[in-house]
Specification:
With about 180 residues, the chain is mainly alpha-helical. The protein has two domains: about 70 residues; about 100 residues. The chain contains seven helices and no strands. It is globular and about 50 Å long.
Length: about 180
């Protein structure tokens, strides 16, 4: 259910694009992201920072796309989002006691500081790469290809990266001792 909630706007964008084109899809994505943020507020009386950032970006870049009737603006949105994430992870790498990845996962697992830092740096590089790759696809291929890449390519790369991180983590986790009464 959480996965569907997180991917709701991109699924709406994809479906609307296939049915009615980039401008209807852009308007639908703005509305879907607004619904996502609104539902988050109604359910928990708080909104995930990532969803707020995404809403801000979709309103700005999607609004520019609709206002100027230029699809290039919406194509930049995933790049800006990924690069903002890269900067956030990099900032946590350079400033503060704990990296962003440690703050997110540190309650669940214990790892040496160096492993946390390598994991965090991995996310910095991943987000920077995906942002650049999005621009490459946006400028070198037709919009149909970019829309497919936005859903299947970016999501697929993210899943592969998470699996690779999981394999890396598995090498550094200590086996759990079972409590015996």
């Amino acid at each position: 259910m959480r996965l569907l909630y997180d991917f709701f706007p991109i699924l709406v964008f994809f479906a609307a694009y296939k049915l009615a084109g980039i401008y209807v899809a852009t308007a639908a994505a703005i509305a879907a992201t607004g619904v996502q943020v609104g539902l988050g507020w109604l359910r928990r009386r708080r909104v995930e920072p990532m969803h707020l950032v995404t809403l801000g970006l979709i309103v700005v870049f999607g609004g520019a796309t609709l206002l100027l009737h230029d699809e290039l603006y919406i194509k930049w949105k995933p790049t800006v989002l990924n690069w903002l994430f890269a900067l956030a992870f990099l900032g946590s790498h350079l400033v503060g006691e704990r990296t962003l990845v440690e703050r997110v996962m540190g309650r669940e697992i214990t790892l040496p500081r160096g492993v946390w830092r390598r994991l965090n740096l991995g996310w910095v590089l991943f987000f920077a790469f995906v942002g650049a790759l999005n621009l490459y696809v946006a400028y070198r291929f037709p919009t149909d290809v970019w829309v497919d890449f936005k859903l299947f390519g970016i999501v697929g790369l993210t899943v592969l990266f998470v699996v690779a991180q999981g394999l890396y983590l598995a090498r550094h986790l200590e086996p759990q001792q079972e409590d015996r009464a």
